[in-house]
């Protein structure tokens, strides 16, 4: 279902925030991988590497959580940015790949481990970073070509970089 039309300026501003989330998602994945290599002794940095590694991992996961919610959420608040806001055809929503059960299970872990302090939080969790990255790339690859170009912020003239080597987790 296409949502009620918003003014183009508001859509353009919303597209800027969506672009930021996509870009920072991939940048944190790239830098997490680099910091992980540094932790193995190939690079010298002054900040404790475990701090940097955890910070980049958590940042990556927070942005992954946001994008998974963007593509999966069905009930929105009036001020939420929705995938349908940037589509010209109502039927295009059905063409967007939705996150699968594995990704949504990872999102459930993100909800518990990143956004809430719970007793069920474990000290160690093997995040499936490659699956998270691939799943979100699949969603984006099905979505971005369907977006109305005329309402996007000019920042979209430089597409986000999707090529990231995100090993392990």
Explain what you see.
The chain is mainly alpha-helical and 169 residues long. It has one domain. Helices cover 52% and strands 0% of the residues. Helix 1 packs antiparallel against helix 2 (49-72) and helix 2 (49-72) crosses helix 3 (101-114). The N and C termini lie far apart (36 Å). The model has no long low-confidence stretch (mean pLDDT 84).
Key descriptive features of the protein:
169 residues, globular, mainly alpha
How many distinct folded domains? 1
The number of distinct β-strands equals 0
Ranges where pLDDT stays below 50 over 5 or more residues in a row are none
Helix content: 40-55%
Sequence-ordered SSE layout with sheet pairings:
Layout: H1 8-42, H2 49-72, H3 101-114, H4 129-143
Helix pairs in contact: 1-2, 2-3, 2-4
Short summary of the structure?
The chain is mostly helical. It has four helices and no strands.
């Amino acid at each position: 279902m296409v949502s009620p039309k918003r003014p183009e300026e508001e859509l353009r501003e919303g597209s800027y925030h969506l672009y930021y989330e996509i870009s920072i998602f991939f940048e944190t994945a790239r830098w997490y991988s680099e910091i992980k290599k540094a932790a193995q002794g190939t690079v010298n940095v002054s900040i404790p590497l475990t701090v940097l590694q955890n910070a980049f991992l958590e940042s990556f996961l927070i942005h992954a959580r946001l994008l998974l919610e963007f593509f999966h959420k069905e009930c929105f608040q009036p001020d939420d940015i929705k995938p349908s806001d940037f589509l010209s055809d109502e039927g295009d929503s059905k063409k967007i790949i939705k996150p699968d059960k594995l990704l949504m299970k990872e999102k459930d872990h993100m909800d518990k481990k990143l956004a809430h302090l719970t007793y069920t939080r474990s000290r160690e969790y093997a995040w499936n970073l490659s699956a998270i990255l691939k799943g979100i790339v699949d969603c984006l690859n099905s979505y971005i070509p369907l977006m109305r170009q005329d309402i996007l912020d000019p920042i979209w003239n430089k597409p986000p970089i999707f090529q990231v080597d995100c090993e392990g987790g």
